[in-house]
Protein backbone atom coordinates (compact mmCIF):
# COMPACT_ATOMS: atom_id res chain seq x y z
CA UNK A 1 0.00 0.00 0.00
CA UNK A 2 1.31 3.47 -0.87
CA UNK A 3 0.81 6.99 0.40
CA UNK A 4 -1.58 7.84 -2.46
CA UNK A 5 -3.96 5.14 -1.16
CA UNK A 6 -4.54 6.91 2.15
CA UNK A 7 -3.55 10.56 1.71
CA UNK A 8 -5.98 13.45 1.99
CA UNK A 9 -6.62 14.44 -1.58
CA UNK A 10 -6.67 17.18 -2.60
CA UNK A 11 -4.56 18.93 -0.01
CA UNK A 12 -5.77 22.23 1.34
CA UNK A 13 -3.01 24.76 0.56
CA UNK A 14 -2.59 28.51 0.91
CA UNK A 15 -0.47 30.93 -1.11
CA UNK A 16 2.61 32.41 0.54
CA UNK A 17 1.01 35.85 0.19
CA UNK A 18 -1.97 34.85 2.38
CA UNK A 19 -2.21 36.62 5.71
CA UNK A 20 -1.81 34.80 8.98
CA UNK A 21 -5.47 35.57 9.63
CA UNK A 22 -6.47 33.89 6.34
CA UNK A 23 -4.43 30.82 7.30
CA UNK A 24 -6.21 30.63 10.65
CA UNK A 25 -9.59 30.87 8.89
CA UNK A 26 -8.66 28.02 6.53
CA UNK A 27 -7.61 25.88 9.50
CA UNK A 28 -10.87 26.60 11.29
CA UNK A 29 -13.00 25.93 8.20
CA UNK A 30 -11.33 22.59 7.52
CA UNK A 31 -10.66 21.59 11.14
CA UNK A 32 -6.93 21.18 10.51
CA UNK A 33 -3.84 22.26 12.42
CA UNK A 34 -1.43 22.89 9.58
CA UNK A 35 -1.50 24.03 5.98
CA UNK A 36 1.12 23.64 3.25
CA UNK A 37 2.17 26.98 1.76
CA UNK A 38 2.70 27.24 -2.00
CA UNK A 39 4.14 29.78 -4.41
CA UNK A 40 2.49 31.05 -7.60
CA UNK A 41 3.47 27.83 -9.43
CA UNK A 42 1.76 25.76 -6.70
CA UNK A 43 5.16 24.48 -5.52
CA UNK A 44 5.65 23.77 -1.83
CA UNK A 45 7.61 26.55 -0.09
CA UNK A 46 6.66 25.94 3.53
CA UNK A 47 4.08 24.90 6.07
CA UNK A 48 2.26 26.93 8.70
CA UNK A 49 0.77 25.42 11.84
CA UNK A 50 -1.67 26.68 14.42
CA UNK A 51 1.31 26.81 16.80
CA UNK A 52 3.22 29.04 14.36
CA UNK A 53 0.30 31.45 14.36
CA UNK A 54 0.25 31.63 18.15
CA UNK A 55 4.00 31.70 18.83
CA UNK A 56 5.42 33.50 15.79
CA UNK A 57 2.58 35.96 15.22
CA UNK A 58 0.17 36.50 18.11
CA UNK A 59 2.68 36.21 20.96
CA UNK A 60 4.91 38.77 19.21
CA UNK A 61 2.01 41.21 18.99
CA UNK A 62 1.91 41.20 15.18
CA UNK A 63 -1.29 42.00 13.32
CA UNK A 64 -2.45 38.70 11.76
CA UNK A 65 -4.37 40.56 9.05
CA UNK A 66 -1.30 42.36 7.74
CA UNK A 67 1.45 39.76 8.15
CA UNK A 68 1.81 37.11 5.44
CA UNK A 69 2.27 33.46 6.35
CA UNK A 70 5.62 33.62 4.56
CA UNK A 71 6.88 35.57 7.61
CA UNK A 72 5.98 32.82 10.10
CA UNK A 73 5.97 29.55 8.14
CA UNK A 74 8.52 26.78 8.47
CA UNK A 75 10.66 26.56 5.35
CA UNK A 76 12.56 23.55 3.98
CA UNK A 77 9.65 21.26 4.73
CA UNK A 78 10.00 17.52 4.38
CA UNK A 79 7.62 16.06 1.81
CA UNK A 80 6.88 12.66 0.39
CA UNK A 81 5.95 11.15 -2.95
CA UNK A 82 2.50 9.61 -3.49
CA UNK A 83 4.22 6.38 -4.58
CA UNK A 84 6.09 5.94 -1.29
CA UNK A 85 5.23 2.78 0.65
CA UNK A 86 3.31 3.49 3.85
CA UNK A 87 5.88 1.77 6.07
CA UNK A 88 8.58 4.00 4.53
CA UNK A 89 6.41 7.05 5.25
CA UNK A 90 5.99 5.98 8.90
CA UNK A 91 9.74 5.40 9.17
CA UNK A 92 10.46 8.83 7.71
CA UNK A 93 8.01 10.51 10.08
CA UNK A 94 9.61 8.78 13.06
CA UNK A 95 13.12 9.54 11.89
CA UNK A 96 12.40 13.23 11.20
CA UNK A 97 10.08 13.57 14.23
CA UNK A 98 7.16 14.93 12.23
CA UNK A 99 3.46 14.09 12.37
CA UNK A 100 2.27 15.47 9.02
CA UNK A 101 3.74 15.47 5.52
CA UNK A 102 2.74 17.22 2.33
CA UNK A 103 2.57 14.79 -0.58
CA UNK A 104 4.39 16.27 -3.58
CA UNK A 105 4.55 15.16 -7.20
CA UNK A 106 6.50 17.09 -9.85
CA UNK A 107 6.97 19.90 -7.33
CA UNK A 108 3.23 20.38 -6.70
CA UNK A 109 1.34 19.53 -3.53
CA UNK A 110 -1.14 16.78 -4.44
CA UNK A 111 -2.13 15.58 -0.98
CA UNK A 112 -1.34 15.46 2.70
CA UNK A 113 -0.65 12.54 5.03
CA UNK A 114 -0.67 12.43 8.81
CA UNK A 115 0.17 9.73 11.33
CA UNK A 116 -3.58 9.48 11.92
CA UNK A 117 -4.07 8.45 8.29
CA UNK A 118 -1.50 5.69 8.71
CA UNK A 119 -3.03 4.57 12.01
CA UNK A 120 -6.38 4.10 10.25
CA UNK A 121 -4.74 1.27 8.28
CA UNK A 122 -4.94 -1.76 10.55
CA UNK A 123 -1.72 -3.25 9.17
CA UNK A 124 0.36 -0.24 10.25
CA UNK A 125 -0.54 0.11 13.92
CA UNK A 126 2.95 -0.93 15.02
CA UNK A 127 4.64 1.59 12.70
CA UNK A 128 2.48 4.42 14.02
CA UNK A 129 3.28 3.46 17.61
CA UNK A 130 6.97 3.43 16.76
CA UNK A 131 6.72 6.82 15.01
CA UNK A 132 4.86 8.42 17.92
CA UNK A 133 7.39 6.98 20.35
CA UNK A 134 10.26 8.46 18.33
CA UNK A 135 8.53 11.84 18.00
CA UNK A 136 7.64 11.95 21.69
CA UNK A 137 11.15 10.97 22.78
CA UNK A 138 12.46 14.45 22.04
CA UNK A 139 9.58 15.98 23.94
CA UNK A 140 10.28 13.88 27.05
CA UNK A 141 13.93 14.92 26.99
CA UNK A 142 12.92 18.60 26.87
CA UNK A 143 10.26 18.22 29.55
CA UNK A 144 11.25 15.43 31.98
CA UNK A 145 8.68 14.27 34.47
CA UNK A 146 9.22 15.33 38.05
CA UNK A 147 8.91 12.56 40.63
3D structure, described in words:
The structure is a single chain. The model is unreliable at 139-147 (pLDDT under 50). Helix content is 36%, strand content 18%. The radius of gyration is 16 Å and the shape is globular. It starts with 13 loop residues before the first strand and ends in a 5-residue tail after the last helix. The chain has helices spanning 20-30, 50-57, 86-96, 115-119, 125-142, and strands at residues 14-15, 34-38, 44-49, 100-105, 108-114. A three-stranded mixed β-sheet has the order 1-2-3. The chain has a two-stranded antiparallel sheet with strand order 4-5. The protein is α+β, with helices and mostly antiparallel strands and 147 residues long. It has five helices and five strands; from the N terminus they run βαββααββαα. The chain has one domain: CBS-domain (Roll), CATH 3.10.580.
Amino acid sequence: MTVKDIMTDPAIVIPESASTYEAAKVMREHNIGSVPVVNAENHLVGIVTDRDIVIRNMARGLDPKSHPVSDIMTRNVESISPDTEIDDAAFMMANEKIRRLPVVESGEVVGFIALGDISACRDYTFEVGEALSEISEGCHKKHPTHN
